[in-house]
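Late entry, evening session. Most of the bench is empty. Finally got around to the prediction I had been postponing all week. Sequence below, unchanged from the version circulated by S.P.
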Amino acid sequence: MRTVALDLGARRVDFCEITDGGVIQRGVLAGLSQLERRLGSETPPARVAFEACREGWYVAERLTGWGHEPVMVDTTRVKQLGIGQHGRKNDRIDAEVLATALLSGRIPQAHILSPARQRLRLVLAVRRSLVESRAQYVTSSRGIVRARGGHVPSCNTRDFLGKLREVALDEQAQQLIEPLRASVEVLAQQIAEVDLRIEELCEEEPVIRRLMTVPCIGSVVAGAFVSVIDEAGRFRNAHQVESYLGLVPSEDTTGGRRRLGGISKAGNSYVRSLLVEVSWTLLRKKDGDPLARWARQLARRRGLHIATVALARRLAGVLWAIWRDGTVYDPQLVGLKSAEGVSRHAQEREFQAQALRAAAGKSALRIRSARRALEAGSKDSQ
């Protein structure tokens, strides 16, 4: 099998093929559209290495379709291959270094998401962008109202337009805010459409319904978790998942002394932030959930911030354990066992069925709510 490496760029792709005897061909392609010239379906099969990037999933899909074996490289560990050493980092050299590492079996390989999880992750990314844009417009609108002597009461972002209508504004403020108000209205409609799409995608993933049995975990959080982890079997234990998401303390062990700092913040920042948000919500709840009780006890000893992050870390372990064991959230079991213990104890079938029915009801309710929001938005636009 041939050994090939690509250095993918926005406007060019550097191509390098080697054998035990050294480089046998190089080339520069003017973008991905010309990749088929060198690696089309009629070319001999090859193992093809390339660094993980925005085009990575697309390139892997094309290469697989042409009969090749794509090898995506973990960008956090490429320096160990020699890329960028001695100030000689350029695309041509990088392609050769990758090809040499692939031939010698030294490639730090990155995981390629399954097609279903890729679709889910991209839809979630669209939702994240829309929500962030809406939040920015709402913040700007509040600032303009305050600058004109008014005040919009605190409220959920989704209720902002209703609260804004209740505020008496002068003509200048109304003219300034109108483009922002119209944009927020459009974004709300688009978010409702994307939410419906997410709910439909989540219905195709039975594991998401299981994860939604955890308190405060909805379809967006569960879907984001699944779209990043992809396969529970990729990880040996909960600690690996927590480390993968950047929720474990950073470490500096030198001179025989071990120093732990803040969390490493490696991995997917979106999932990490969602888990932290869920932790804040759990901490504010006044029920008797064992996870919330554990976090509140920790908050009294170590402070609220540390407790929130620690709860997010434990949530990641609980979600992974539920996924790996094909079980559901059992507060009694969580109260007796650690997050790792959850992964070693299956739940009774009747309890699982009840929890799954409740999760299915929650999902159906979300879908109905999303559809009602879409219908209401359509009527308002008319």
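Two things to note before I forget:
Residues 338-347 have pLDDT under 50 and may be disordered.
The chain has three domains: 2-104, 116-203, 206-250+258-347.
Will write this up properly tomorrow.
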